[in-house]
Amino acid sequence: MPTLEQAVHDAMRGVIDPELGDNIVDLGMVKRVEVADDGRVDVTISLTTSGCPLRAQLMDDVRRHAATVPGVTDVGVHFGEMTADQKKSLMARARWKARDPIPTEIPMTTRVLAIASGKGGVGKSSVSANLAVALAARGHTVGVLDADIGGYSIPRMLGVDEKVSADKDVDGKVRMQPIEKRIGPGTLRIVSMGSIEGAEEDEAIMLRGLMLNRAVQHFLEDVAWGDLDYLIIDMPPGTSDIQMGLARMLPRSEVVIITTPSLAAQKVATRAADMAQKGFLRVAGVIENMTAFTCAHGDTYALFGEGGG
Q1: CATH top-level class for 4-97?
Q2: Which of 38, 41, 131, 150 has the fewest CB atoms below 10 angstroms from its CB?
Q3: What CA–CA distances, in Å, run from 258 to 120, 122, 284?
Q4: What pTM does this model have?
Q5: According to CATH, where is 3.40.50.300 located in the chain?
Q6: Tens digit of pLDDT for each residue in 136-158?
Q7: What confidence score (pLDDT) does residue 98 get?
């Protein structure tokens, strides 16, 4: 029978570092577990930095899991800081762990296209919507995931104002049902933060990077997408947590980079492509948007320059 100290140490495997996605025992963060005669337990956790913003959450999780062990009467949580070698070992494990894809509801036969850009205002969402409609018009079933959590626009662009519903599947798990819209012989299945009950188009959604990534993961894991020919993901602009998380959640994704003739857009788009390649995602192509205007007389004018793609 394990000692109380060992039982508490084992219970710490239930505490997941929310940024690294692994338990704090395997990450080497549990420095010490001390047990007093009266059943009080003191757990010392080593953080990568003393100013860790998730310190309070980790403290609550450690207390909650330690308190479930029979014989524990009180729990104290203390924090220290990792040495340089410990940090190096932790990050090596985290990078290796990130190679394992997260299970999702997206069929393996689905072609996943992440529509990305380095900066906003280049027409990324417009391209996502138009591409999805064009594919559906050819008879395909197309999922549209609006991953721009704080700046969603897909529901308005596709003309849907319904809210997603939730139903139990045959396994008893509750899954969200995407909004379906027929386009000729094909079908769109749409999920967006703007389609969640309670979301208001004129109210800001303020989430930290970690929670943004979790929202996208939720859309991939807990939505009943069904059989899809394509999944179009309208990515947020930039190279942040959501973009990095996609490489782990859907490592087979292909990235389509949207840019404009503007030099600023070109430079930032280059960084977006570099991020995709570092995440081992294939860059399927580059679309230069807002390239030219053809007037009623047939003359073409490059209003914003040309050659940005």
Answers
A1: alpha beta
A2: 38
A3: 10, 7, 11
A4: 0.62
A5: 111-301
A6: 999 999 999 998 876 788 988 99
A7: 54
Output the six-digit token pair for 51.
Answer: 């100013």
In angstroms, rounded to a whole number, what is the distance separating the alpha carbons of residues 69 and 127?
A: 54
Complete DSSP assignment for 215-267: HHHHHHHSB---S-SEEEEEPPSSSSHHHHHHHHH-TT-EEEEEE-S-HHHHH
For 48-199, strand residue ranges (E) read 74-81, 111-116, 141-146, 165-168, 174-177, 179-183, 186-192
pLDDT bin (cut points 50, 70, 90) of residue 195 is confident
Q: Which CATH superfamily is domain 111-301 in?
A: P-loop containing nucleotide triphosphate hydrolases (3.40.50.300)
What single DSSP character describes residue 172?
A: S
CB distance 238 to 266 below 8 Å? no
Q: Which ranges in the chain are annotated with CATH 3.30.300.130? A: 4-97
pLDDT grade, residue 242 (50/70/90)?
A: low
> Residue 82 corresponds to which tokens in the numbers above?
């990792």
**Rounded distance, CA 287 to CA 299, Å?**
22
Percent share of the chain, pLDDT over 90: 31
